[in-house]
């Protein structure tokens, strides 16, 4: 497999790149996310000033919202093996630095929040074009805790 992404050391979404009027950025999925066939366009809005967490809200159905994050903050070694075939729908990516977001599930608060490392969102930051990639790697959890649990 060809690794097209690498561990990020800084937030992948530059807050300065967000629309200054409403602090949002558009993400256009080139293929629908599994289970959401009609939702291709989303707005990405930072939840916190540091750009650690974002809401990704459907433009078509604003009630559909995901919490997403660049994985580097909680998973600095996360480097999914994404092949060119996995992201072929994005078009030519050979000379493009792809960036990654992971979907976060929160029940009662940050202490029980988890990230889906098996199905990252891979995007071209300059254009906002994105695709969710379902990886076939048993080492990657669907629910990786954001906060390390004390034993």
Distance between the termini: 36 Å
Kindly state the percentage of residues in helix: under 10%
Q: What is the structural class?
A: mainly beta
Number of strands: 8
The largest β sheet comes out as: 7 strands, mixed, barrel
Strand percentage lies at: 25-35%
Provide the low-confidence segments as ranges: 7-12
- Count of DSSP helices? 0
Write the layout of secondary structure elements.
Elements: E1 25-29, E2 41-46, E3 54-58, E4 65-69, E5 99-105, E6 114-123, E7 129-132, E8 144-145
Parallel strand pairs: 1-7
Antiparallel strand pairs: 1-2, 2-3, 3-4, 4-5, 5-6, 6-7, 6-8
Provide a compact summary of the structure:
With 151 residues, the chain is mainly beta. The chain has strands at 25-29, 41-46, 54-58, 65-69, 99-105, 114-123, 129-132, 144-145.
């Amino acid at each position: 497999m060809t690794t097209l992404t690498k561990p990020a050391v800084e937030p992948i979404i530059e807050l300065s790149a967000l629309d200054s009027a409403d602090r949002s950025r558009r993400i256009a999925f080139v293929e629908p996310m599994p289970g959401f066939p009609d939702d291709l366009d989303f707005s990405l809005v930072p939840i916190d000033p540091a750009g650690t967490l974002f809401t990704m809200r459907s433009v078509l159905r604003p009630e559909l919202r995901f919490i997403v994050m660049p994985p580097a903050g909680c998973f600095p070694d996360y480097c999914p093996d994404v092949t060119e075939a996995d992201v072929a729908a994005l078009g030519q990516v050979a000379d493009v630095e792809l960036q990654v977001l992971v979907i976060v599930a929160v029940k009662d608060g940050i202490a029980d929040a988890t990230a889906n490392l098996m199905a990252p969102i891979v995007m071209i930051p300059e254009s906002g074009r994105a695709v969710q990639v379902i990886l076939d790697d048993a080492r990657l959890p669907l629910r990786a805790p954001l906060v390390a649990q004390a034993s």
